[in-house]
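Good morning,

Attaching, inline, the backbone tokens for the sequence recovery test we're adding to the shared suite. The designed sequence is right after.
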């Protein structure tokens, strides 16, 4: 009787777990090798750019030298891409933008060259450029997602909501909570006009909850819409309830279709008290409230928050017609965002 093929025989005890462990180690080694190659390539490009800068400054070489260098490098390394005149100019600009080699090795060197070109061409402020680089590394943003976040000024809006977190939450939770909120929030993906009512906006946000979570930022998990609370036999309904995985607390979001009024905080504070008493786990942090309104007077909001003991924030939201025309054309469609989430950014639009 012939022997069974190796693939059909029963493995010995412990073999399956060992194989799974080996596969994991191999994948990790492959990822480390890819990252190491990328770091070396980005560092090489920075060194070439630095050489060009130094020689042009010391010897007065003009742009024609870069064109000659591109030809000679392509001839010497025909199998390598990246030695075009345009890319050499980018290397020069890259070295000029990051004069500190440590930043290249520790931060932007962890990003692919394409990501670095987006940072280089889209952002002029070094601190802001570095902040986007660090977030791209931390959250694994693709080049397209990085570009979207830069165009929508994601980091510039972070931490801009009017809050009382410094007085109502302990550090470092207060800092993390403040950075978790934006102002304004952009709901352009809803396609609603400025005349949309609160319930219409709320329903659209739930319908497009994936895009809403992207706009809220990392850490937010959707719990429910119109969440009912029974307080003394009376029913109350929270517009939107979230849980923040990093802060380890619930976040109540209330929508107002008009301008901020101080009395809005009384209703929101009541909801926070009810969630703290009925919903949150003893290990959870204090529930945070975020009031989203069409507009606000910042000074009025600051005064209204000053004597509140609960952690509350006030921010604006912007709908499609509220945005400048030049920004509307640069925004991604819902289909584009869905493709990005699915890992297929190059597929054509199939939605109207």
């Amino acid at each position: 009787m012939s022997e069974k093929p190796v693939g059909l025989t029963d493995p010995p005890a412990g073999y399956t777990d060992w194989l799974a462990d080996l596969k994991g180690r191999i994948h990790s080694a492959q990822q480390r090798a890819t990252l190491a190659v990328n770091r070396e390539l980005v560092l090489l490009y920075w060194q070439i750019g630095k050489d060009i800068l130094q020689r042009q400054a010391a010897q007065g070489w003009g742009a024609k030298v870069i064109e000659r260098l591109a030809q000679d490098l392509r001839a010497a390394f025909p199998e390598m891409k990246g030695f075009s005149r345009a890319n050499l100019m980018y290397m020069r600009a890259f070295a000029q933008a990051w004069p500190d080699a440590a930043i290249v090795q520790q931060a932007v060197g962890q990003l692919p060259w394409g990501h670095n070109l987006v940072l280089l061409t889209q952002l002029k402020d070094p601190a802001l450029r570095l902040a986007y680089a660090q977030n791209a590394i931390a959250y694994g943003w693709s080049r397209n997602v990085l570009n979207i976040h830069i165009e929508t000024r994601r980091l510039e809006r972070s931490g801009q909501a009017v809050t009382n977190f410094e007085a109502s939450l302990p550090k470092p939770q207060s800092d993390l909570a403040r950075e978790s909120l934006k102002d304004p929030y952009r709901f352009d993906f809803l396609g609603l006009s400025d005349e949309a009512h609160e319930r219409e906006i709320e329903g659209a946000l739930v319908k497009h909850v994936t895009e809403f979570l992207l706009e809220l930022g990392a850490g937010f998990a959707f719990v429910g819409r119109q969440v009912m609370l029974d307080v003394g036999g009376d029913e109350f309904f929270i517009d939107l309830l979230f849980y923040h995985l990093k802060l380890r607390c619930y976040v109540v979001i209330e929508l107002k279709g008009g301008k901020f009024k101080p009395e809005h905080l009384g209703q929101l504070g009541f909801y926070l008290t009810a969630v703290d008493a009925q919903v949150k786990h003893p290990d959870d942090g204090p529930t945070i409230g975020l009031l989203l309104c069409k507009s606000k007077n910042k000074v009025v909001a600051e005064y209204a928050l000053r004597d509140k003991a609960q952690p509350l924030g006030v921010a604006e939201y912007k709908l499609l017609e509220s945005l400048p025309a030049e920004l509307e054309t640069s925004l991604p469609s819902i289909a584009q965002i869905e493709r990005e989430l699915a890992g297929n950014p190059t597929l054509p639009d199939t939605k109207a």
